[in-house]
Amino acid sequence: MFVTDIRKDFYDVVVNQRVALLVSSDIDALCACKILQALFHCDQVQYTLVPVTGWQDLGTAFLEHKEQYQYFVLINCGVNVDLLETLQPEEDSIFFICDTHRPVDVVNVYNDTQIKLLIKQDDDLGVPSYDDIFRDDEDEDEDADGGDSGNESDGGSEPSEKRRRFDEGALERRIERQRAKREWEARRREILFDYEQYEYHGTSAAMVMFELAWVMTKDTKDMLWWSIIGLTDQWVHDKITHMKYVTDIATLQRHVSRHNHRNEDEENSLSIDCMRISFEFDLRLALYQHWSLYESICNSCYTSCSFKLWSMNGQKKLQEFLADMGLPLKQVRQKFNSMDMSIKENLREVIEESANKFGMKDIRVQTFGVHFGFKNRFLASDVVHAAASLLENVEKDESATDNFIKALDCLSRSNIERLHLGIDLAKKKLKAIQQTVASCICTNLILSQGPFLYCHLLEGTPDVKLFSKPLALTLLCKYLLKAFVCSTRNKRCRVLPLIMAAPMDVEKGTVIVLGIPPESETSDKKNFFGRAFEKAAESTSSRTLHDHFDTSIIELKMEDRGKFLDALITLLS
Fold first, then answer.
1. How many contiguous H segments (helices) and E segments (strands) does the chain have?
2. Residues 425, 389 contacting (CB under 8 angstroms)
3. Which residues have CB under 8 Å from 296's CB, separation 6+?
4. In what order do the strands lie in the sheet with 376-379?
5. How far is CA 431 from the centre of its chain?
6. How much is the CA Rg of the chain, to the nearest whole Å?
């Protein structure tokens, strides 16, 4: 059921209990977790933090902790399946779920005892009404049968003519009931299909947790910064529409103004370790303040696709763009920190002016920046890229849990060194994505399969190990589709979704498969591949693993790829 008063029905319930905190591996979940941890520290709530990467992990974590814990808080996992069916818990286990995945499973919505959903009601959820999905058939049947058999037993003394007439009436009523039931079931299937066919995302979990802190008047600047990063993660990884992003940014901007206003009269606004959050209308250039401007333009999805940098013409266009800005190449190619102050002062305006001439009207975007003391300045997107790179670091063979802890650590302002490490990893990742996109487009690896585009990264491609991870593959997929749409002349291909496959585990012979919706500015970001993958796997008995919390990401046996794709083509045609 939906929790209406998050303070009374959630926080006041767990504040005197031991809690198991099960957190999914994405940046928004990490931020929500940080906010909740800070609140738990305030009130000395005992909790155990368990990172979970998929459904199997979640099942294992629950089995390990169900004896000691009665209360479970699930962040960004568990809402889009029937949780009680999946975990089979005891009747006294209570689950609080704060999850951005949609649609919410109907059984979770209508379970009043064990499932408590910490989800914003104003998200357009469209949950079907109770009577359309559940009905108490058993009682009706028993009443009907009981009534008929009772009459028959008395009927020894009644004339048989009358009894026959009565039987016919009962029979007709039963046939009528069965027909009504069949119609109801057909309609139920239709309603559920319409409700469940698309996967999309709702309000960021970090924002929901920040709202809890705000209601309890325990919100701090750190918590506000984490909720900003949670929202920015949804934007960077293309989970929400531009309209939703702008609306949520406006909500957070009000909180930022409130906090800044509160601190104006305090001494600490000038102390060396103070934290200042500011609303920015900044450039869509990834990590440009920690890189050279040239590298950032080359490796940012927006500029790289606008210029088509994988072609000779694109490179020429880039040189023209730099010349138009009137910036010396020496300045553009050195680290941003080392650029002349005179250039940096009005850099955004200069870039925006030239970008408009080159058809890049949306080079600036609403976001937030933070200053830690006087020296360190970060944009929200910098932190998202850094944390995601630490979370999916493949350079050292460390466990998923170790990477999770490091990514969680880099969000604290006491761990600036770790954040810089993450930024260095993020630069490598963005370069790898840019090179992979260029090689895929130049070697025509993207094939039109009819109802969708398909690209398969081969074993032995540089950086292929990086793309066995969901967040990195999502970024690559989004970037590749945008690049393809910019470079293709085929108008029909421009409105197609993309399915991407990359090697996952060579020894087991598995690939990771991801589907994303078509690229367009007005896209509603609703993804139908989750359902389609399930149906295609079922109809061909392909060996797949649907373990990811996003249903549009699956693992597939290499040998079954052909028949799986054929089934998808048939299904979506």
1. 24, 16
2. yes
3. 285, 286, 287, 288, 336
4. 275-283, 364-372, 376-379
5. 23
6. 28
Handedness of CA 105, 108, 109, 111 (dihedral sign): positive
Judged by DSSP in three states, 68 sits in coil
Query: Does residue 177 contact residue 169 with C-beta atoms inside 8 Å?
Result: no
- The confidence band for 266, taking pLDDT boundaries of 50, 70 and 90, is low
Contact, 529 vs 535, CB < 8 A? Answer: no
Outline where 528-560 has alpha helix (H).
529-540
| Phi, psi angle pair for 79, to nearest 5° | -90, -25
Pairing of strands 71-75, 18-24: parallel
Instruction: Give the pLDDT confidence of 43-71 residue by residue, as tens digits.
Output: 999 999 999 999 999 999 999 998 999 99
Is the separation of the CB atoms in 111 and 91 below 8 Å? no
Question: Which pLDDT value is given to residue 139?
Answer: 46
User: Distances in Å between the alpha carbon of 399 and those of 127, 182, 392, 472?
Assistant: 38, 51, 10, 17
List pLDDT tens digits, range 202-254.
999 999 999 999 999 998 999 999 999 999 999 999 999 999 999 999 999 99
Distances (CA, A) of 377 to 252, 277, 278, 285, 484: 19, 10, 11, 15, 34
Check: CB of residue 39 under 8 Å from CB of residue 216: yes
Distance CA 2, CA 177 (A): 34
Show the tokens assigned to 159: 């004339």
Coil, strand or helix: which one is 335? strand
Counting residues of the chain whose pLDDT is more than 90, the rounded percentage is 57
| Total-model pTM | 0.91
Residue 385 has a pLDDT of: 95
Strands of the 447-448 sheet, one edge to the other:
447-448, 453-456, 498-505, 510-516, 553-557, 544-545
